[in-house]
Amino acid sequence: MVFGTNRRRRIHLGGCLAAVLLLLGLAAARPLESAESQEPGKPPAQALPDFVALAKKLAPIVVNISTTQSRPRQRAPGPFGAPSPFGGEDPFSEFWRRFFENPPGMPRLPQRALGSGIIIDSKGFIVTNNHVVENAEKINVKLSDEREFDAKIVGRDARTDIAVLQIVDGKGNFPQAPLGNSDELQVGEWVIAMGSPFGLENTVTAGIVSAKGRHIGAGPYDNFIQTDASINPGNSGGPLINMRGEVVGINTAIFTRTGGNLGIGFAIPINLVKEVVPELIAKGKVTRGWLGVTIQRVTPQIAKAMGLQTERGALVASVVEGSPADQAGIKTGDVIVEYQGQPIRDSGQLPILVARTEPGQMVKVTVFRDNRKIPITVKVGELKEQEELALAPTAGRLGLAVQTVTPEMAPSLGLERAEGVVVTSVQPQSVAAQAGLRRGDVILEVNRKRVTSASEFGQMVDQVKPGANVLLLVRRAGKNMFVALEAPEPKG
Is 370 a catalytic residue? Predict the structure, then answer.
């Protein structure tokens, strides 16, 4: 604590000294209790784990990754760079920063980015984050014993932010990371994070598992481990390790106002990594199931309006024309409450279940419609790149999809009445994404004219000439703000 005067500082130090002397006196009068002297039935105090032994044992499986890449430099919005269009006080304007972002409008220049990774196979296969090696032209990995190697990308999956590299011209017999079971992790359990924060190699930090199953807006497959073990830029791709010396997660993201650690970090569960990696090694990509629906969370207000007993399930906000869901008869406004007999507790659960389904498989889906449950059989399709975003044709020019706000949706969006359109998806790297728009935003005006429907919004956007400014009035978290972006050429 900082005080304004020397006198107050002396008072503060004097108080501390008195407290220390008092504690010393108490210690002298009453020796510390041993485990044997504790009350019967009272559990003994637990000592701290042996971090020293874990750090020595696992250092060889952690690598420092440096890449050379050529791309536009972009400024991270909000608390990570220039002020966000939604105001610097709102930490959710860019909820999670992907390390190594660069600022809009700058020329393409060679850059170096630093990250971390773990060796998972004696042949030199390395797991890291996709955002660490995305756009990389050259990749160098450095081991804890100071050996350095070139590496190549074997496969990448942007949806889960996982990438697999392989050491080039290595002699093999590399150390191999022991992979644990992230489903067995308990909140409050000790973990350590290893990596190269800010380029400082072989760094170890410790903390606990703060939460599991976190959805942070990074994508449809969010299911992160939250930890207070210090994670900083450069830790991306490094391991999160339990006290048995097993890798239970891949450090990926942080929540911060300053660019440094604030005690809230996130890791991809290792069980998800174990699902994705074999396909990346074999095919360089991941094959996923696809329904063709845009979903949203069932809020207490929506549940009440729709006659649901609880706010569980996934509310279908839109259905892609011709998609498996459309062909099976799933409709906008349905609430998907079961998938293959498994209850859907929240909307984030459904995309993961669908993604794990083999394309072509027939699945049973139960929807809640008109106050009754309806069983529907759907033939799952294959998720392709162009189908992932399911952009509305009229809004695709800006890189977002929208839906007309209905009276049932208005309360959950913080609106007193149905007005405007709600953003249902935003394409990465699009002009909408660069402007800071995100799913759940309500667009009320385009160039100072009120918007009443999704089709009207599309017509307004289509009428804007390429290069002209588009001024949007957006409502988020109960507050209105203007967002300006430049209209690109229409997509043909």
Answer: no
